[in-house]
Design a protein that fits this description.
- It is a single chain.
- A 5-stranded parallel sheet has the order 2-1-3-4-5, with helices on both faces. A 5-stranded mixed sheet has the order 6-7-8-10-9.
- The chain is globular.
- It folds into 2 domains: 195 residues, Alpha-Beta Complex (inorganic pyrophosphatase (n-terminal core)); 106 residues, Diaminopimelate Epimerase, Chain A, domain 1 (Roll), CATH 3.10.310.
- It is built from 17 helices and 10 strands.
- The two termini are 40 Å apart.
- The chain is of the alpha/beta class.
- The model has no long low-confidence stretch (mean pLDDT 92).
């Protein structure tokens, strides 16, 4: 069993909430990893005898509120009498948002896997990458970190950990693949168990999704990695982003007929998503295809894109085509939202690249190969110059 820094403190706080029948909220990111983690955390708490009526799920509408803590949802939670929030797959670098939540009277536990930046984080953080974590097990998705945490909670409560495994380990594999998590000797045993559960006793939403994607007959970790883009597109199409999220509904449902219908509707949405992302990716290919000496691409459009997750997909498509780091951005209300992908460079780190111009971002964070950022339009030119200097020196 893996124990991460602050694990015991976080477990003790949840046990206190259980004994006192506190109302709590689970707040997650809106990408595939975040939604799978939200389902895992909800099911794990219910299995640990937390009352369903005491658990509020928050999956923020990213087009209105982004992924992190916001006054609208926090005010709703406060009016419900909730003081404790379990945040999953985000938060490690959300200093201002967490400070706002703390000021409003909330206690925050974060289960995350994104890289740290300097700054004061007024929350109880469980993250294998945080400074001072001595665990050798680092390569986990947000869902994976949540699973490790709940293993320890179950042990403390003297609940058979097999109960957690039998119910929720099937949720680990897909977000590990869609989030480009490195598979190593420490997470592989968990992923093999996840695959076995999907094969032998799958939840209807996952099985029917993989059947529709033509991935269930030849189900293996290797084949799922090979078809990573199919999984990312399908589970990343978030129509009804927010409480009506279709992937959340799909994963929670145990009704085979309903999940088949949901899968068909998601597949239609995926086709529209693919059409949208192909349009902008093709524009980028035409723009940069003759510029063979580029060491990175920094490019975007001055308008919003309606589909959640689209800018990540566009940056990924361009990265796959050119095999160089790609920073793609678009306008979102009055700010610029960007997504970064670098799946091919061996010696560079996009987080390090952005740290060189940290003051020019409103916020940024993620992984060495996959990240995102927010900035102001006036800073784009300066960011590009800083990135140019970084990549000329390091590539």
């Amino acid at each position: 069993m893996v124990k991460l820094k602050n694990n015991n403190k976080a477990v003790n706080r949840l046990v206190f909430a259980l004994k006192n029948s506190e109302k709590i909220a689970i707040w997650s990111d809106y990408d595939p990893d975040g939604v799978f983690a939200l389902v895992l955390a909800y099911e794990a708490l219910v299995l640990a005898n937390f009352k369903k009526n005491n658990i509020k799920l928050i999956l923020p509408n990213q087009q209105k509120y982004k992924r992190s803590f916001n006054k609208f949802n926090l005010s709703l939670l406060k009016n419900m009498g909730i003081k404790l929030i379990l945040g999953i797959d985000f938060g490690t670098t959300d200093f201002e948002q967490i400070a706002m939540a703390k000021k409003m009277g909330f206690e925050i536990i974060l289960l995350d896997h994104h890289r740290q930046r300097s700054g004061k984080l007024p929350a109880l953080l469980v993250n294998p990458w945080q400074k001072g974590d001595n665990s050798k097990s680092k390569n986990w998705s947000g869902t994976g970190v949540a699973y490790l945490f709940f293993q320890n909670l179950y042990k403390y409560l003297k609940i058979n950990i097999k109960k957690l495994e039998d119910n929720s380990i099937d949720l680990l594999l897909i977000p590990t693949i869609t989030d480009y998590i490195k598979i190593d000797k420490r997470n592989l045993p968990y992923l093999k168990k996840s695959l076995k559960k999907i094969k032998k006793c799958p939840r209807p939403g996952i099985k029917n999704s993989l059947i529709n994607l033509d991935l269930y007959k030849k189900l293996s970790i290797k084949n799922l990695i090979k078809n990573r883009w199919k999984l990312g597109d399908f589970f990343g199409t978030l129509e009804g982003n927010g409480n009506r999220n279709n992937i959340l509904r799909l994963l929670l449902s145990r009704d085979n007929k309903k999940t088949k219908l949901d899968v068909k509707n998601i597949k239609k949405e995926m086709m529209l998503f693919e059409k949208c992302t192909n349009k902008f990716a093709n524009q980028g290919i035409k723009k940069f295809v003759t510029k063979s000496k580029n060491k990175f691409i920094f490019w975007g459009i001055n308008k919003e894109i309606d589909f959640p997750g689209a800018i990540a997909k566009i940056s990924n498509k361009l990265n796959d085509y050119f095999k160089i780091p790609v920073f793609f951005y678009c306008k979102e209300k009055n700010i610029i939202k960007g997504s970064v992908r670098d799946n091919y460079s061996k010696n560079t780190n996009i987080i390090t690249a952005m740290k060189n111009c940290e003051s020019l971002f409103i916020d940024f964070g993620g992984h060495p190969k996959s990240a995102g950022f927010y900035t102001k339009n006036k800073n784009l030119s300066a960011i590009q110059k800083s990135l140019k200097k970084f990549y000329e020196k390091n590539i």
